[in-house]
Amino acid sequence: MATILKQDCDNCFKRLNGCCKNCFDEKEVNIFKCLTDKELDFLIDGKQQILYNAGETIIKQNTSSTYVVCLKEGLAKVYVEGEKGKNLIVRLIGKLDFVTGGGLFNGNIQQFTISAVTPVTACLIDSSKLTMLFSENKQFAIELLRHHTKQNSNLLNKLVNLTQKYMPGRVADTLLYLKKDIYKSNPFSVPFTRQDLAEMSNMTKESFVRILQEFKNSKLIKTKGNTFEIIDENALLSVSKNG
């Protein structure tokens, strides 16, 4: 069961180092940098900090939600729930990611389900405050729209790759994504089941395991349980590129 943490924790209310000032990685554009101190105080007033256990739902697809999520710690998956229990994981989110669930400008109806893969600490911020600041602060509106455009572009590229590439290319993309974007190390250990990894690659678990074995036989990767090591990254990149 999710746990509500102390609301006025010191880290969350330091204007320069609190969660709202660090909702993005240093390499990303921080959309909150253009808010005044007064606007920032307005935004974070009344927010809640929640601890989710692994497997718990943070946002549920097709439900109405009046908050956006800023992840402080942990790893979560964003996925589309299909019919007959078939899911498609479209991205992973981690520390300092800012997530709206796709419903901020769409009547607060959430387009995806977001659930915790590991224990997650997240700040929930009233979405109506974001939309109010959107209408009052031009620069903030521009930065927020840029953020949404980038997210939509990444999602579109993901869907194109999943529908146009053959299965080996999709498995290669998943492994490279985990190494380069999520864990930034090699080897890397993941908290995912083979079913999760298959849902990231838009295929059945059986097909994913078969292609993984082909990669191992070809000396592209090594695996031991849930630990992966990419041995020949250039070859894996070639598989990804050629689909």
Quick rundown:
This protein is 40% helix and 22% strand. The protein is of the alpha+beta class.
Descriptive report:
The protein has eight helices and twelve strands. It is of the alpha+beta class and 243 residues long. The chain folds into two domains: 160 residues, Sandwich (Jelly Rolls), CATH 2.60.120.10; 78 residues, Orthogonal Bundle (Arc Repressor Mutant, subunit A), CATH 1.10.10.10. A hairpin with a 2-residue loop joins strand 11 and strand 12. The radius of gyration is 19 Å and the shape is elongated.
Tell me the distance between the termini. 41 Å
| Strand and helix order | EHHEEEEEEEEHHHEHHEEH
Tell me the strand order in the biggest sheet.
1-2-9-4-7
* Total beta strands: 12
CATH H-tier superfamily of the largest domain:
Jelly Rolls
Number of helices: 8
What would the principal axes of the Cα set say about the shape? elongated
CATH topology of the largest domain: the name is Jelly Rolls
Task: Classify the beta-strand content into a percent band.
Answer: 15-25%
Oligomer category: single chain
Query: Fraction of residues in helices?
Result: 25-40%
Radius of gyration: 19 Å
- Structure class: alpha+beta
The low-pLDDT segments are 7-18, 24-29
